[in-house]
Amino acid sequence: MEFKIKNICCIGAGYVGGPSMAVIAKNCPDLEVNVVDINRERINKWNSENFDELPIYEPGLKEIIKRCRGLNLHFSTEVKKNIANADLIFISVNTPTKTKGVGAGQASDLKYVDSSAREIAKYAKGKTIVVEKSTLPVRTAQTIKNILEQSNIDNRDTKGNQREFFVLSNPEFLAEGTAINDLENPDRILIGGEDQEAIQGLANIYENWISERKIITTNLWSSELSKLIANAFLAQRISSINSISALCESTGADISEVKLAIGSDKRIGNKFLNSGPGFGGSCFKKDISNLIYIANHYGLYEVSEYWQNVISINAWQTNRISKIVVEKLFNTISFKKISILGFAFKANTNDTRESPAIKICKDLLEENCKLAIYDPQVSPLQIEYDLQLKQSDNLSNNDQAEWTFADTVIDASINSDAILVITEWEEFKFINWEIVYKHMRKPAWIFDTRSIVDINKVKMSGINFWQIGKGKI
Ligand code: NAD
Ligand code: UGA
């Protein structure tokens, strides 16, 4: 049976649901795309008149929302109505790590997926394709199928019509900060499923703007597992290069030269080899933790230990940054002011989930220093939430941990003893260090955890300089 898809519903209007549905709506003007969420505040922001108030910052997103919202793209809290009208439903809800109970700290918390499936089971009509877009433990599709098929004895909708569900896995590979480009030009689209017509129905949507040869179809379990493994492999590369950054610092080697030398080998490739303060973001740690949990579940303890090390090296890399800062500043930073440049977990996003900046700032505050934090997209309210500490209007002169939000790099640098670059925002590459130096207390330091500061310019300004993976300055 061929599927005629006219109406799409996406449950979850977050970093994945919002941008991915916007790109579908833009490329498929004949489809009606409804994005629903239980978070009214988030939906209000998606519907805000001022496009600068959208709930997420992503280059290129605002323009698509301007073009499609109200035409064939709608954001609402009307879950029931939009499920009932949908031919195809994406589940794009959050799947955080469980914080308590069985598997706490490792297993994915599937409560939002479970409740989405139950909502679909209650309200869907006729034949419905249900697509896992969230990242899920392998074999979750079976649970979703069970909920859909067993929640209603004869599986009839409210009008008595026979219903049928087709569950597919279609994980999302977008990265934040480049989401729109990743969605417009993906490396591949992965669809796992059992029913060929349902798979083709979903593939037809993507084929509106993506070449057929980029669409990979697999069985459900390969698709679910591949998403976890893609993230695990990416994170593993970062832990590998970060472990070597420390070795460079100890031996006089230079991590950017090592990166060039090894990345020129086509088998290794030059992407994803930037050492930094440790990977952040809502997914790498969560997904590897989930992989570890699954491996343990199947008794594959060596496998789980292998992946555990990727997480351990990452935590070690983040932890060593604040230690280096304290050591260089004569082993004490109390009464000292440190400027933090960048709080988001990477450039071009306002997302701070698992940002290394959070741990580094907390570690520095433990030493009773003063922080001036500047980020072009993260709000002071978000930083207060992440640090669990209210910001001060003015930094005092006493021996007390405090932080304040700075509106510019220069504001942050005034009277500061050190500047710590944590996020690789483009504007930090073009800072005039001679001007900044004049505002700082001497001796002044720069700590560059992203290798984006131009060493020659810094040298000219006279500031003391430390850069990740740089054995010799
Ligand atoms: P998010 O927290 O930004 O958004 C999820 C949204 O789902 C929230 O707004 C929440 O209110 C909503 N929600 C939860 N339960 C609901 C329900 N029953 N009904 C309606 N709405 C509900 O999460 P995200 O970053 O968009 O991630 C979603 C999934 O996609 C996760 O599994 C994640 O691992 C995966 N993923 C994320 C990214 C990324 O870059 N953030 C990339 C690829 C995959
Ligand atoms: C990552 C993956 O890249 C996406 O393919 C995936 O869909 C997504 O996770 C997900 O499942 O959530 P994202 O976390 O948004 O995307 O961003 P990345 O570009 O992967 O960066 C993750 C972290 O690694 C950031 O803190 C970044 O600064 C760091 N990183 C990245 C490095 O330290 N070095 C690098 O070379 C690359």
Can you give keywords for this protein?
elongated, binds nicotinamide-adenine-dinucleotide, six-stranded parallel β-sheet, Rossmann fold, 473 residues
Question: Strand portion, in percent?
Answer: 5-15%
Can you tell me the overall shape? elongated
**What is the CATH superfamily classification of the largest domain?**
NAD(P)-binding Rossmann-like Domain
State the share of residues found in helices, binned by percent: 40-55%
Total number of distinct structural domains: 2
CATH class of the largest domain: Alpha Beta
Number of strand elements: 14
What are the low-pLDDT stretches, counting only 5+ consecutive residues below 50?
A: none
CATH-defined architecture of the largest domain: 3-Layer(aba) Sandwich
Could you tell me which ligands this complex binds, including any ions or cofactors?
nicotinamide-adenine-dinucleotide, uridine-5'-diphosphate-glucuronic acid
Concise description?
The protein has 473 residues and is an alpha/beta fold. The chain has helices spanning 17-27, 40-46, 61-68, 79-85, 111-123, 140-150, 179-184, 196-206, 220-251, 255-263, 284-297, 301-328, 356-366, 380-387, 409-413, 433-439, 455-461, and strands at 7-11, 32-36, 73-76, 88-91, 127-132, 164-169, 189-192, 215-218, 337-341, 370-374, 402-405, 418-421, 445-448, 464-467.
Written description of the protein model:
The protein is α/β, with parallel strands linked by helices. A six-stranded parallel β-sheet has the order 3-2-1-4-5-6, with helices on both faces. A six-stranded parallel β-sheet has the order 11-10-9-12-13-14, sandwiched between helices. The chain has a two-stranded parallel ribbon with strand order 7-8. α12 packs across α13 (356-366). The chain has 17 helices and 14 strands. Helix content is 41%, strand content 14%. The chain has two domains: 7-218, Rossmann fold, CATH 3.40.50; 220-473, Rossmann fold (3-Layer(aba) Sandwich), CATH 3.40.50.720. The protein has helices at residues 17-27, 40-46, 61-68, 79-85, 111-123, 140-150, 179-184, 196-206, 220-251, 255-263, 284-297, 301-328, 356-366, 380-387, 409-413, 433-439, 455-461, and strands spanning 7-11, 32-36, 73-76, 88-91, 127-132, 164-169, 189-192, 215-218, 337-341, 370-374, 402-405, 418-421, 445-448, 464-467. The longest helix is centred in the middle third of the chain and has 32 residues, at 220-251. The structure holds nicotinamide-adenine-dinucleotide and uridine-5'-diphosphate-glucuronic acid. Residues 135, 172-176, 231, 234, 238, 272-274, 276, 279-281, 283-284, 345-346 line the site of uridine-5'-diphosphate-glucuronic acid.
